């Protein structure tokens, strides 16, 4: 419980302000969710450490919220404190390619600034909403790239010690949409450091919609423009006037399954949709060395819990990554499904669940359950939600 005395101590810290009027509907891109007990805003890394230390010492549950693009929060009051990291210094060293960004920097501003001076490696991560501090937590990735490719270290507040220090990326167990910061309460990222290429060219391109020549490198500005156009076509660039962007982005992670299950799914598609459609099924074999890191299908967890034991694919055979969007569509869910109502699939992209303007968290949850059940019934694959769920479960 948060008592009046602790609230007063938080408010008295230099660089810290508090309020009780903020709601999760105001803080998240899904625009749903009730009010936290308190919202605490910190203007520097030092003030954040002081506030976080007080909350930890008092055993008060808190959740750090940046852009709110990866959160689904229940309706009604939430017994949790929101911490906002309102410091946003960005330091770019062009000659070395080193970039340091404080947690409160808007992520796409980091990408835009790097690309503008010819630094490469994060151009495929253009247009992703949220703040820099959240990027390592789930190893954000898109279009064949992920932050693990360029992250060197993070400035981390350690909840076990109450202190902050630079921690190497190698200590974060980065894997597909995962780090050991996710769900564990290990710490809070206060800043990140990236090492980017300095030759003005992108990282080797691997995504089919960006190149027909895998491994090709192109000018970073060209790739960023192409990625932004692709994301906009899918409703994945935030626009308050466009309800297709009132979402949490890609709602389900791409499932990783044994090759035998992928074969079974492809056979079912062949029976129901024909040979040509089955031949186009996205199947991406994973290297044997990545089995342990990427073979886990993690169950979503609220931030007050540690991550439950992962449901692992049978690692005795090769693993493949499938497309969640492709499976959703083949299970009978079209863009805009169900066509009307407060919550629907995006009219531009079947992997986004959207608030059409008046949805509640319960509406989003009901749609997520329907989609997941449909894919499970059709293909025997249990899709795992990507956002953090608070006060609700699938």
Automatic annotation (TrEMBL):
Keyword Oxidoreductase recorded:
yes
Query: Principal localization?
Result: cytoplasm
Report the GO molecular function annotations. FAD binding; UDP-N-acetylmuramate dehydrogenase activity
**Which Pfam family is one of this chain's hits?**
MurB_C
Q: Single Gene Ontology BP term?
A: cell division
EC class name? oxidoreductase
Gene Ontology cellular component?
cytosol
Tell me where in this chain the FAD-binding PCMH-type domain is found.
32-199
What is the active site of this protein? Answer: 177, 250 (proton donor), 386
Reaction(s) catalysed by this chain, per the record, are: UDP-N-acetyl-alpha-D-muramate + NADP(+) = UDP-N-acetyl-3-O-(1-carboxyvinyl)-alpha-D-glucosamine + NADPH + H(+)
Keywords tagged on the record: Cell cycle, Cell division, Cell shape, Cell wall biogenesis/degradation, Cytoplasm, FAD, Flavoprotein, NADP, Oxidoreductase, Peptidoglycan synthesis
Subcellular locations according to the entry: Cytoplasm
Record region (Disordered): 272-314
The record's section on InterPro entries has: FAD-bd_PCMH (IPR016166), FAD-bd_PCMH-like_sf (IPR036318), FAD-bd_PCMH_sub1 (IPR016167), FAD-bd_PCMH_sub2 (IPR016169), MurB (IPR003170), MurB_C (IPR011601), MurB_C_sf (IPR036635), Oxid_FAD_bind_N (IPR006094)
Q: Which cofactor does it need?
A: FAD
List the pathway annotation: Cell wall biogenesis; peptidoglycan biosynthesis
Q: What is its EC number?
A: 1.3.1.98
Family that this chain belongs to: Belongs to the MurB family.
Function per UniProt: Cell wall formation.
Q: Which NCBIfam families match?
A: murB (TIGR00179), PRK13903.1 (NF010478)
Query: Entry's PANTHER family?
Result: UDP-N-ACETYLENOLPYRUVOYLGLUCOSAMINE REDUCTASE (PTHR21071:SF4)
This one is known as UDP-N-acetylenolpyruvoylglucosamine reductase
Native organism is Corynebacterium lizhenjunii
Q: Which gene encodes it?
A: murB
